Amino acid sequence: MANNKIVWTEDQKHAINDRAQNILVSAAAGSGKTKILIERIVKMLTDDNALNIDNFLIATFTDAAATEMKERLLKRIREMVNDKTIDPDIRQHMQQQIYLIPSANISTFHAFCLSVIKKFYYVIDFDPNFRLLSDDTEQSIMKEQAYQNVINDYYANDFEEFARLSDNFTDEKDDTGLWDVIDKIYNFAVTNDETEKWLDGLVKPYEFNQTFSDSDFFQNSLMPVIRTKVSELQLDIQHGKQLCDADTLTEKYLDDSFTDATNWVKKMITALESNNYDTIRTQLNEYKIADKKRFKLPEDSDTTTLDQAVVIKGGLKGSVDELKAFFIKPEAGINDVLKDAQFLISKLVKVERSYMAEYTRLKINNHVIDFNDLEHLTVQILQQQVDGHNVAANFYQHKFREMMVDEYQDVNAMQEKIVQLLKIDHNNLFMVGDIKQSIYGFRQAAPYIFTGKYDEFQKDTNDDKLIQLSKNFRSSLDVVNFVNDVFKKIFDKRIGDIDYDDSSKLVHGKPYADGFDPKTLDTENEFNIITLDKSDDNKKNSNNDDDDRDKGKALIAATAQRIQQLMRSHYQVYDNDLGTNRDIRYSDIAILSRTSSYNTDLISLFTKNNIPVMVKRAENYFQTSELMVMISMLNIIDNPYQDVPLLAVLRSPIVHLNEEELAQIRLLDKDEGIYYENYYATILKYLQKSDADPDIKDKLENFLVKLNSYRDFANQNSLARLIWKIYQETGFLEYSAGMPGGKQRAANLHALYKYADSYESNNSKGLHQFLIFIQKLRKSNKDLTQPSSIEATDDTVKVMTIHGSKGLEFPIVILMDLKGKFNSKDYTAATLFDSKLGIGIKVLNNESRLVYSTAQRQMISDKRKLASLSENMRLLYVALTRAEQKLIMFGSTTDPEKIFDKWDTIEVGDNGVIDEGSRSNTNSFQDLIGMSTMSENDRKLEKDQTYINKNCHLKMKFISPADIEVEPMADSNSADSETVELSGLFKDSVNKILDFKYDYQKLVETTAYQSVSEIKDIFADPIAGEMGDYEPEAKQNTRYNLNSFARPQFLTTTKKITSAEIGSATHLVLQKIKLDKTPQQEDFDELIQDMVNNKQMTSELADKINTENLAGLYQDKLGQMIVDNAEHVSREYPVSILMPVQDLFKNDDLTGELKDKVTDKILVHGIIDGVIELPEGIIIFDYKTDHVTDQNKSELIAKYSGQLNLYAKAISAIKHKKVLHEYLYFLKITEAQDLLEK
């Protein structure tokens, strides 16, 4: 067994024992901060001046952390109570603490604030009868309602000015732009400790008297930034010139370039001395330097210095362009932009205050407060005086002898203000955190509060002390070395907010049991990059969403394969409790990613392959099929006259009608030609039909009885009771539980019941309002969290976001999708925000409709870009430091050489940190890891496609998708199988069963739904079906005889523009061409170019369309007929028809007696290229893009005749008219064939 006795380090002892000072503990990942907190509390409970646990305020950031803290403290106290060697008085005192712990202030900030409000509500005359608005979605709906109330009022009473405001912040796609801005301002304002002052200050940076040059913002805010940027640019130019002076080759090629740059930057510095906007702008626009000389490089020349200088030269233009972004127009023009900005922001603040007031009114009316209210009300209470005294503040200052704040790097300004109001003059503040793990900027966490104290406390005054905990007790030596190798090269004060020096880096300290050799463990870290194939053509024609999905599937498959390899090889994990190694379990593995976007596909693949998985907050609740059925059911109970949800329920296991039966019901209306009547009315008519199918009628009657009973029940009972009644009477809950993944499906349905109960308990009543609530969730792309059907203690692979993993640890950590790009919206959005700098906007000129970015916005953008990159670096730090034994990372690329080129061009400064330019241009974890551990100086080729890091145990391997193979794991719940030889009569019986031939096998292989395009294959040469098609892409949709699933794109090595794609594009052009005159070739060329410009097709596909042949159609008799009857032409005309099976099987599939027995019908659906409806009859035409020769022409006509005959039969039944002509038009030879022509 392991030795659990703790040996404290000197720094840990200081953190436990030091008193009478404000202490900031900078605790690196795995440094045991929770144990230290517990031990410090215990020491203070047992010192000579012993405290009680209710003398502590211990604040953390999650309920789980607070609960864990209480449990661990209670366990430690009980150990002491039961330890007979401890002084009896101390044991008695500790026994008392056991009774005090349940009511102790060990909680989140919000829970503490809630207790303050409940205790001291009266000092601010606040109504104590309130409920906490803890549901994010309910809060969002209330906020949106407040916004709608406000804008309705402004549109009614201040239309002109408000419309101008809305126009500036709303794009062409929808009108949510202004709402997004209002909501973001609210989020920044309420986490600021001086909300009103912050709002008042938003317009000040845009104010000026005569010119922008004279403004306070230009002189005192912008100019210091410009000077710094120019100074950095000057240093780059000097560096480049030094490289030229030091290397003959570099001088030959680039000396003129850097000489020009040197002369320009001198003039630029002189221009800065003028402090004049136009003078600086003019000099910026004068930037022009000589190009690199073009000489042939001498053989065997060393280009190392030249390559460095080329990179520097390339960065100069980018730096100048960044400066130009602050000076987009001459000063006269920018003055006008700023005047518009002043109006817009002043109006915006006015609307914001109206919104905040209306949101507050709605909360008061509904007796609710939100989490932000908790902090603001607490501050009000602590600051409020009663009879000249701060009653509440004095109470807590006297009560709390020690205040501990965990995760201090994540506090916001309001929370810090609460801490300071409680502290006053006492040196009783103990703060624990790690700036390297500050990852909650999106919640307005303020890491500058931690870094400010970190810098101040390093002075180590009598009042304040900084303690550094760097020793890592969690991770293996290989993990620690790898983490240090990465972050010593990418962290500094400017990017990352901390220098990764000796005081910040991890020090390996993981303890192992006596006698155990950790070198026997496999702790080598893995950096796997999947090489996704993407040819140039594929790049041009690819869909980004499809590419991302294919990449995700490849990553998931590779992850699953690696887990299977670990399990099947009995990989050895060190067990801290056992003090030795053991076989790996699924629960030893955690999969982390930046987002949860791949969770749905991951669950599907893992479940399919018997890999048990638990996803933390799987937010795809409404996408599950069982929920879609239940929401549809609730929709038709609310209003049955809704076709889509009604059909969803009818097709579901609740009613179990198939598509053919649904079609039979709809065809009751065929006399009307076009079906406008809703499906519910059609059902009622069908039940009155004397010759209705008895099985269908029976199902419908039973369903309507239930539906009507549910509608009556809903009017008199709660929503939760209604849902439970549906579960009980339909058996849908039990049915879902019996399906694959049934445990999760049942949990989802149970959760719907609970969500409904929770919704109604919040004073929201009624089925209709609940459905509106869900509709708004879907509309806003929000979702509810899927409940977990697996206990945390189960042996399952854990899947979570990196944010969700904070504070946790796992033997094996798999970091997935290293290539995922960082979110750039924080610094590229049209409207940007910052807690210090305020708001940066773009201004729309109402006359020219041109949009101008302001210097204020550019300044915020620069700051937010660095802040965003810093937080993403810290997010990577959190991810990597979760691992106890081994890190397995998966990235991807389409070009391995290209990523090496990028990683090899970095420069490492004298301080060991990669140059800021390279880091600033990084947008993925993959590049951060690659350039810090796999640059040319760091990597070594081990074998083909596999590299190792020279300094730490890291192996990088390129993996082809063709090498990814996932096979189902053995089900742990099933017994091992073995082969048993059968004999005698039993063997004969088994063989008889296995050899049985089903007479209706062809019907089993045929779906009840066929498209006309698919059915053409039935009429074609039977041998062609066996031999396959020349272009398999064209047959991917065939239902009739599809023998295999489509190969996933990530496993496909090539892609070209197929004939099927060309054919579809050609049909689209023919559908859109105008018929008000005879179309000419130039008309088709113009239309296609418009479609390319509007992204309706790619230019590569457009080039494949023969417009000369398209124009030829309209020189033909058929084309003229189409133009002459344009008002009677319908293009892309959809038709459906129920056909007897016998009419489709013209071969030997159904013969003799069997053919007479079969009465089944198949629903056939198709789209006719064109229909001309004349009084005397109908003409149909269909275009074909096949290659036609004299030899295959008759075969093609025979192939497509069956398809056109089906079209004719369907359109004739619908229109009740005779078909006069059936034209096949072959575009390649501009020739029409009338199939009805004798």
Short overview:
This protein is α/β, with parallel strands linked by helices and 1238 residues long. 50% of the residues lie in helices and 13% in strands.
Report on the architecture of this protein.
The chain is an alpha/beta fold. Among the domains are: 10-130 and 369-469, Rossmann fold; 136-200 and 334-366, Enzyme I, Chain A, domain 2; 212-328; 518-617 and 801-826 and 883-963, P-loop containing nucleotide triphosphate hydrolases (Rossmann fold, 3-Layer(aba) Sandwich), CATH 3.40.50; 621-779, Orthogonal Bundle (PCRA, domain 4), CATH 1.10.486.10; 1057-1115, no CATH class. A nine-stranded mixed beta sheet has the order 15-16-14-17-22-11-25-24-23. Strands 3-2-6-7-1-8 form a six-stranded parallel beta sheet, sandwiched between helices. Strands 26, 27, 28, 29, 30 and 31 form a six-stranded mixed beta sheet that branches. Strand 23 (939-943) and strand 24 form a beta hairpin. Helix 15 (371-383) packs parallel to helix 17. It is globular, with a radius of gyration of 36 Å. The N and C termini lie far apart (95 Å). Heterodimer of AddA and AddB/RexB. Residues 532-551 are annotated as: Disordered. Its cofactor is Mg(2+). One of its GO terms (molecular function) is 3'-5' DNA helicase activity.
What's the overall average pLDDT, rounded?
85
State the end-to-end CA separation: 95 Å
In the predicted model, the low-confidence regions spanning at least 5 consecutive residues are 536-542, 973-983, 1017-1054, 1146-1154
Report the top-level CATH class of the domain at 10-130 and 369-469.
Alpha Beta
- The CATH architecture of the domain at 10-130 and 369-469 comes to 3-Layer(aba) Sandwich
Question: What Rg do the Cα atoms give?
Answer: 36 Å
